[in-house]
Amino acid sequence: AEQTLANLRTVLEAAGARIEDCMEVTVYLVGVDHWKTFNEIYTRFFGDWKPARAVVPVGALHYGYLVEISARAWVED
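-> C-alpha cells emitted (77 positions)
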C-alpha cells in the first residue's frame, strides 16, 4: 500500500499535480482482511485531504499484488 501510494504521488507530481488535487480514488484491495492496515496507511498518506473514495474488495490481482489504486485529479493548465 505504501509503495502504491508513493507511485500515485509520483504520477501526480509528473502531471504537475499535488495530493490535494486528487478528487476521487478507487482502491482494489485483495480481501477485507487487509482493510484496517490499508486504511491506516491511506489516512496517513492523504492527511487532512479527503478525496471521494471507493474500496472494492477483490479475490486476486495480477502478479499477486494486494492493492491497486486508480485516482482522478484536477490539474489546471
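Strands lie at 22-30, 52-58, 67-73.
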